[in-house]
Amino acid sequence: MKKTIKVTKQRAGLWQDNNVTYAQVPGWLGHSTRDLKLTVIRHFEQQEKSLPLIVWFAGGGWMDVDQNVHLPNLVDFARAGFVVASVEYRHSNLANWPAQLEDAKAAIRYLKAHAAKYQINKEQVIVMGESAGGHLASMTALTNNMTEYDKGDYLDESSAVSQAIPWYGVVGPLSAKQKSASNDFDFVYRNLLGAEPEDAPKLDARADPLQFVGQNKVPFLILHGTKDAVVPVSDSEKLYASLTENGHPADLIELEGAEHMDELYMQPEISDLIINFIRTNLK
Fold it and tell me: Ranges for the BD-FAE-like domain (predicted)?
């Protein structure tokens, strides 16, 4: 069979930029230099306007970070008209908190500095992540304009973001450790802080989003499963209550029966919910 068809252009094509170095940080016991990488899913260059950016932080208990692990699932957001950047950050065997927060902000500054290349609207940056990455998304948003966490290059760019979407994100390390239905991951909080959270209240407070909710009014969409045995859903409920009390536009969506890192989060219904929230709160 031979035939000629006329195809209507309905969406842009996508490019993927792999292993982009956004920062260099101390490596092996402080004696070497280590590259930090990110991956960008962007649109073909003929777009007429800049696009909102979603910055994604994968989970892994701050023990192992692979910025590419969820890229197939993040394409939905690129197809919906966003630029998507998935960011590597230092795990806790390399550096204790707040190095991870410094990395997140360095990545955002790098992306804003290269906004023209990636067709990014610098005023529309959304941070999103799962578990440890959800914690990082919350902390990145709630520390907007706190320059003590801005380290490295492109310091003329702001690391401020406009929305946060944590998926089953850790809130306070101590609370997560004490309220978790499982003790299997208690060690990750010690590794993150460099001390047991119950023995180091000041360190725990520096990594607790609840301590920063009064800093700004960033909109939050919180997703959490009712059967999460690793990160207690009650902590997300507490974060939601604190955000709303402090004037943040916030929604909490609890996924009935969903466990930690559940496939339910990857369903079109959830992608659509996230996209609608972002669009509603874009300025």
Answer: 45-243
Question: What are the tokens at 126?
Answer: 């959304």
Residues 58 and 64: their CA atoms lie apart, in Å, by 9
CA–CA separation, 71 and 75 (whole Å) = 6
Measured distance CA(173)–CA(210) in Å, rounded: 11
How far is it, in rounded angstroms, from Cα 224 to Cα 215? 24
How buried is residue 118: exposed, middle or buried, by Cβ count under 10 Å (0-12/13-18/19+)? buried
% of the chain beyond a pLDDT of 90: 86
pLDDT tens digits for range 99-110: 999 999 999 999
∠93-95-100 over CA atoms, to 5°?
A: 110
Q: Which domains does the chain have, with CATH numbers?
A: 14-281 (3.40.50.1820)
CA distance 153 to 89: 15
Chain-centre distance for alpha carbon 35 = 19
Report, as an integer, the average pLDDT of 65-88.
95
Q: Is pTM, for the whole model, over 0.90?
A: yes
